[in-house]
């Protein structure tokens, strides 16, 4: 493995992590709920309470790259998967977030910070699945 030193950005990554942690913590303090994106998205399409703050949180996530672009150019995005693979991946992620009662943000950021055993199992499960998937696709299939 080699590091792309020209695009290595530890300070911006650290800043993003601090902002993400602060926003998840503020959401929990102000609303008494974790900032799990799949749960927020699910509650926006259902008849759950507190839609306005969840909508604002999600809107902030969508607008953050536009705000960042005022200070620095966004990295180029290269998308090489076809629509079929993207559709399959989306369905699998949707199934996984429902089956695991949350997503990476809910379990990985909010759950682990609360020392939730359920979130620890979920994070270990999806990280192991990701590692295995990358290994199989890159080294066994050769894609």
TrEMBL record:
The record's GO CC annotations read: plasma membrane
Q: Does the keyword Disulfide bond apply?
A: no
Highest taxon of source? Bacteria
Topological category with respect to the lipid bilayer = Multi-pass membrane protein
Mind listing the UniProt keywords for this protein, alphabetically? Cell inner membrane, Cell membrane, Membrane, Transmembrane, Transmembrane helix, Transport
Its annotated compartments are: Cell inner membrane
TM annotation in the entry = 12-34, 55-71, 83-100, 121-141
**Keyword Cell membrane: yes or no?**
yes
Task: Identify the InterPro entries for this entry.
Answer: Sulf_transp_TsuA/YedE
What family is reported? Belongs to the TsuA/YedE (TC 9.B.102) family.
Q: Which PANTHER family does this chain map to? A: INNER MEMBRANE PROTEIN YEDE (PTHR30574), SULPHUR TRANSPORT DOMAIN-CONTAINING PROTEIN (PTHR30574:SF1)
What protein name applies here?
Answer: YeeE/YedE
